[in-house]
Structure to design on (314 residues):
């Protein structure tokens, strides 16, 4: 590795996610090699990556540069001639293919056979677990999921999912790399079907679909309600932080009322009921996360909302 915080990166798959990761990593000046068996995809993707990097640097986003390499201009990704050529010298391999689980398992098995013993592999896989992905591997400790929403280079949160066999040192290394790239790694404490981003997204999707199919809203109306309403609000402060700020000085009682109101709105879903003990426990967890920060958080939220309105034109 050229430096502790600047790995050599190999990206497998010129998918939308692959192009996003390549734009992000090469835009930071890190060495990147991309491989896709489809030569046409590989060629077309190179032009798009260059365009996306220019757009990111011109959109007001802060430039991401490694501390040891802050004067180096963004590098151009190299196109790998083969899987072996792409991964042989890599410190970090990003699987950004769009294959199903079985094909990913086979690919990862091939990668393991030709890559370095010390390489770390992350899969940009929505909803797949490390346990399933590493089923064919001899070194499962060096694999984990690192999933970001598209466009990867524009959305900072990255969902990181270690498995029961993941080496904690590998997890910490990936978190460090992501932070160096200006990302916000969010680590799941345990595996769960669908992972966190997928479960939250599906819950919102389900309601959006029903509102349209039940004739409540048109498609454009749902998109406007989300993009200019809930998404804007949650971009400034997530759902729990929003509930805490709404509760104000009467936090326990008001938080309880907010949670009960959520249950009452989930009409038709008998499974969504918070037992009293879990209800009280959740209130304590929210208070523990944000207690004493109300004024600071409220000011930060209002500043973010004002900036969003300026940028988006709400």
């Amino acid at each position: 590795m050229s430096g502790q915080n600047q790995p050599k990166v190999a990206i497998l798959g010129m998918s939308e996610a692959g192009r996003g990761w390549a734009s992000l990593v090469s835009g930071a000046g890190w060495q990147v090699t991309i491989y896709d068996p489809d030569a046409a995809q590989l060629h077309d993707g190179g032009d798009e990556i260059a365009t996306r990097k220019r757009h990111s640097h011109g959109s007001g986003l802060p430039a991401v540069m490694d501390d040891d390499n802050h004067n180096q201009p963004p590098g151009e990704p190299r196109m790998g001639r083969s899987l072996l050529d792409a991964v042989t010298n890599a410190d970090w391999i990003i699987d950004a293919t769009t294959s199903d689980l079985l094909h990913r398992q086979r690919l990862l098995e091939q990668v393991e056979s030709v890559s370095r013993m010390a390489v770390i592999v992350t899969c940009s896989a929505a909803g797949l677990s490390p346990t399933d992905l590493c089923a064919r591997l001899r070194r499962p400790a060096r694999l984990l999921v690192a999933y970001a929403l598209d466009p990867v280079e524009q959305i900072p949160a990255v969902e990181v999912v270690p498995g029961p066999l993941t080496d904690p040192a590998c997890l910490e290394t990936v978190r460090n790399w992501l932070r160096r790239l200006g990302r916000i790694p969010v680590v799941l404490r345990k595996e769960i079907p669908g992972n966190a981003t997928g479960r939250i997204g599906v819950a919102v999707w389900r309601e959006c679909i029903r509102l349209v199919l039940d004739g409540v809203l048109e498609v454009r109306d749902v998109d406007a309600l989300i993009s200019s309403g809930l998404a804007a609000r949650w971009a400034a402060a997530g759902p729990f932080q929003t509930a805490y700020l709404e509760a104000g000085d009467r936090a326990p009682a008001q938080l309880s009322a907010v949670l009960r109101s959520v249950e009452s709105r989930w009409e038709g879903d008998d499974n969504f009921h918070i037992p009293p003990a879990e209800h009280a426990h959740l209130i304590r967890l929210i208070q523990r996360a944000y207690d004493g920060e109300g004024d600071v958080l409220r000011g930060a939220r209002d500043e973010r909302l004002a900036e969003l309105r300026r940028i988006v034109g709400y």
In short: Confidence is low (pLDDT under 50) at residues 69-73.
